[in-house]
Recover the amino acids of this structure.
């Protein structure tokens, strides 16, 4: 399988505790950069987890070698970051929610389709212990 260079935008808890280790389970995914609006957060994650490069969001999006971006920002930043990723001609995966409104989500999907780029979204903990507990309470 072709190797895919990956960048992460958003260097908080979910990125550190779930996504970096998840990416590394797949031989064809190569995590090469991380970015955050807080430069110190990106630098620290890069150092702590052995990610080759910490950079600004703009630098990550300008890197032509990165094909796939994980948008792990706060929900209110998802829509503008998703648009920036698509404008940089990169595929993306975004942590839930995909966007805050249906109209925003539709605009993102239409842009991705026009540019022939892939999008995806889901929580890292889908069907995890918390959701299973909630489901049991509801079922009971």
């Amino acid at each position: 399988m072709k190797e895919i260079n990956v960048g992460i935008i958003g260097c908080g808890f979910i990125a550190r505790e779930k996504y970096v280790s998840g990416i590394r389970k797949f031989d064809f995914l190569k995590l090469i950069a991380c970015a955050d609006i807080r430069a110190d957060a990106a630098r620290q994650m890069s150092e702590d987890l052995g990610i080759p490069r910490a950079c600004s969001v703009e630098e990550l999006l300008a890197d032509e070698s990165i094909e796939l971006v994980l948008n792990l920002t706060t929900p209110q930043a998802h829509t503008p970051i998703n648009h920036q990723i698509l404008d940089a001609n990169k595929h993306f995966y975004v942590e839930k929610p995909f966007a805050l409104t249906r109209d925003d989500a539709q605009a993102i999907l239409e842009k991705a389709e026009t540019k022939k780029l892939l999008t995806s979204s889901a929580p890292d903990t889908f069907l995890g212990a918390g959701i299973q507990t909630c489901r049991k309470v509801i079922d009971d």
